[in-house]
Design goal:
Elements: E1 11-14, E2 18-26, E3 29-35, H1 45-68, H2 77-81
Antiparallel strand pairs: 1-2, 2-3
Length: 96
């Protein structure tokens, strides 16, 4: 983890697109301003953790549902070896 000290109105740059500025400090609360492209998703960490937890839970439930569903029957490879072989037909193209 990188630890930086910044004062009010000082910033850090993250990559080319994201700038984080300290707006205000009141006791143990720091207000940050984030300047980033609109396509950039910015989440509070506790919300991000909740989203990740729910996504993992949903993925696990989907996986369990897929396991419990009836599988499509598959023919064994030996069944295909008993099928008649297809003859290969060579064709010739007419010359121009």
């Amino acid at each position: 983890m990188l630890v930086l000290s910044r004062r009010v109105n000082e910033s850090i740059q993250i990559g080319e697109d994201v700038e984080v500025t300290v707006i205000d400090i009141r006791g143990d609360v720091v207000r940050l301003g984030i300047n980033a492209p609109q396509r950039t998703q910015i989440w509070r960490k506790e919300l991000w953790d909740a989203i990740v937890k729910e996504n993992r839970k949903a993925a696990l439930a989907a996986k369990e549902t897929a396991k419990s569903s009836v599988a499509t029957p598959q023919l064994p490879v030996s069944a295909f070896s008993k099928l008649p072989k297809l003859k290969t037909v060579k064709t010739t193209r007419p010359k121009k």
